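Posting here for the record, re: zinc ion.
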Amino acid sequence: MENNKVVDKEQQVTKCLNCNTEFQGKFCPECGQRADTKRFTIRFIFTNLLQAILSNDGGVWTTLKSLFTRPGAMVVDILNGKRKSYFSPFPMLFLTLSLYVVIFTFTGSKDIDYDNLLNDDNTEVVVNDGEQTNEQVIVDKAKNFIINALKFYSNHYTAAFILTIPVYILAARLSYGKKNRKKYNWGEYCIPIVYSLILLVLYRCVMSIVYYFSPEIADKMEDWIILLNIVVFTACFKNMFEFRIVKMVWRSFLTIVLYWVLFITIALMIAGIAAFILFMIHPEYLG
Ligand SMILES: [Zn+2]
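Prediction output follows.
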């Protein structure tokens, strides 16, 4: 009798609460959900949260440790399919960006005076009987556009940040060469870039905290960002390619230069299209 009971328990059929598949075992073979899905309790939520952070297998903490000690090897692990041991790159980027926004909100930073940013003090103000010339209107519209774009960037930091990722991928694909473009696709280039950005955002978190105590030291930290950019890209990409270290550093430097060239070109193109649309709507500005 006792034995039969044990056998019965082992062969217990569960109905998956997620996809309704009937199965035996700890996990649903169709969708992977656990068999023992329980009701939400504060204790359950708290345990899950702690597990996501502290777990040795796929937790935030061990992933961060790998990111600092062996970023290149971790990226190759993930590309080769060894993924369960690491916290996913995109959720991790969102977590770090959120952390940055929180720190930034409390510690503050240099206030950028957007309204006076583009006003050159040496420019003579031409008073034209209270009426603006067409040229002045166009210049004012263009200034407003750029100021609003900058305000958008600082107010929607996270969204703007995510939008730069495709530009980084393009820059990296062009810089690291044709052979590697064939070896890895666009999505695969995304992984080392996202982990690089996580490291850079973490540096900005530290910088923001330092700024609170000493703006001078924070200013000096900002000077190192370009160098850090090169180091971080080299570290995250290096195991994917068969470059010697000097070539790897040089190509990483090229990636960052190319990123800025592409970024400015795209920004100017968008501004050009916006100006074109503006003149289509208001042809009178053309005079
Ligand atoms: Zn299922």
